[in-house]
């Protein structure tokens, strides 16, 4: 399982980084609304990781699938946050000030506030998507015998 979540977690992070750099190249990286696509990237990556794990295992347990989703998204979140920290502290120090200005805050909170927001949003997205995808991928407890107990 560790190979799967490591591979897909790093792949998600690379795609997130590429998406951010592409939006910077176009000039849209100052608009936080475009970070909604990050959820789509997370979703595709987590779903592919879960499907890969389910295809490799004969007995797909809910706990293992949930754990895989959390680890995949968590790793992607941490790698992307480290990249953004390096970007905001070393490459473009004005980026965080521009983002905070677009949020409309009147007080100085600094780059750390954006990094904390990235971590919280990444883990929240991971949790919601993992719960949703596990409902799709888990095996049903409904049996053919259960149909005989219904009202006709």
Summarize the structure.
With 152 residues, the protein is an all-alpha fold. The protein has helices at 2-26, 36-56, 62-91, 94-103, 111-137. This is DUF4199 domain-containing protein.
Protein structure class: mainly alpha
Query: Helical percent range?
Result: over 70%
- Tally the helices: 5
What average pLDDT do the residues reach?
A: 83
- String of helices and strands: HHHHH
**Regions with pLDDT < 50 over 5+ consecutive residues?**
none
What does the largest sheet look like? Answer: none
How many strand elements? 0
Give the terminus-to-terminus CA distance: 45 Å
Q: From the alpha-carbon coordinates, what is the Rg to the nearest angstrom?
A: 19 Å
Proportion of residues in extended strands: under 5%
Keywords: Membrane, Transmembrane, Transmembrane helix
Protein name: DUF4199 domain-containing protein
Transmembrane segments: 5-22, 28-49, 70-91, 111-133
Organism: Cochleicola gelatinilyticus
